[in-house]
Amino acid sequence: MDHRSSDEPVRSLGAVRAHPVDLAGPEPGQVDPAVLSALLERHGWRRRGGAAGRYARWTRPGPGTRTSLLVPESPDFPDSEELLGEALTALERSGTPSAREILVALAVPSDEIRWWRDGPESAAGASTWTAEEQLRSAARGMLLAGALAARGRAGYYGARHRRPAAAALENVLVQTAPGGHRLTAFVPVATGRPLAVRLHQALYAVREAIDYRRATGGMDAFDGAVEAGVSQELTEALVALVRGTEGARVGVAWAPAAGVPEECTDGDAPVEFSPGDLDVLRAAGARYRHAEPAVPVRVTGTVVRMRRSGPCGEGTVRLQVIAGAEVPYVRVTLDEEAYRTAGHAHLVGLPIRVHGRLQSRGGFRRLTDAGDVVPVQVEEAERDRLMKSLQENLDFFEEACAGEE
Fold first, then answer.
1. Which residues contact 326 (CB under 8 A, 6 or more apart)?
2. What number of helices (H) and strands (E) belong to the chain?
3. Main-chain phi, psi angles of 248, to 5 degrees
4. Residue 173 lies in a domain
5. What's CA 251's distance to the chain center, in Å?
6. Which of 174, 252, 292, 351 is the one with CA 20 to 30 A from 259?
7. How far apart are CA 257 and CA 262, in angstroms?
8. DSSP strands (E only) in 119-275
9. Is residue 155 within 8 Å of residue 284, measured between CB atoms?
10. Which segments in the chain show pLDDT lower than 70?
11. Which domain holds residue 311?
12. Final residue of a domain: which of 79, 107, 135?
């Protein structure tokens, strides 16, 4: 087993965030000795014997360490709670990252997703920083792909579901090892297990699809892999992970406190990818992007920008989506009458409703075949809010009146 370095702090994928464990640590009576033992083993602690059937002695990894824990074999052991209390206190006083991570996992059960990039050790300085940033970026892209797949299956998401998928990553913490070759993400079970399950299944599905492509020359397996969570977003993240390496691996370790999901198995080996897979991954990504169909929608949104080349004729409107599509904004070209309707609705602080087809080209950000543009009545409080937004952002409407492109 490849254990993480004990020299790097735990960080979030973006800005550093406080972990919920900072609010309260686990109580001895709430700790399952089997879970604690599993976490100690996962983090590289070594079992050094103990009284058989009663307790085990665990020591921290590394030469010259003195920290030793006595962990009962069962909560039925007479002194179980006392021994667990002493073990938790020793972990808190240890101050090492591995001890802190074990306490985090006890308080907030998390699935661990691990990435490895194989290649020569990076030199200190800018090259190390670059390698670490590349790994973090690839890992975040892969987690986002898993979060997207947890919301629904698609070969290409584009701008769809991006906000809720990104929000699903807010409580995910990461830890990198020196050199930018290893990274681990801690995904809380309570909020992120669907993400971890979908990503786990998708990784094996994309590996099988690549192998099928090599054996038969066909790309058909990638079509079926969509149901397992494979997408253009996942293949793109895998390309970013593997590019510039001699190979890469991704593995999932399930939280001992929560057990193994029904859809998955325990102890699966990490999924391996090599530079020889890059061409197939790129081809699959292009296939997904081109094959994703347009989606018929009825979008309700507020006008946030209007433009046309002259004082009359058709124009382009940008809508902030309220309902009807899982994207934050859409751009739509309207004929003269519909453009005028959109302008009037905007002046009085009303959203509009429009029918059309959300095109995959451009990431599902453009509505075509638009029609049936009508203002939508809203409650007075919402209308006041929209009017206030208009007054604070007059610049875009001035552009519309000036007819600027």
1. 160, 161
2. 12, 14
3. -150, 155
4. yes
5. 15
6. 174
7. 15
8. 173-176, 182-188, 247-253, 271-273
9. no
10. 1-25, 50-53, 62-66, 95, 120-127, 380-405
11. 295-402
12. 107
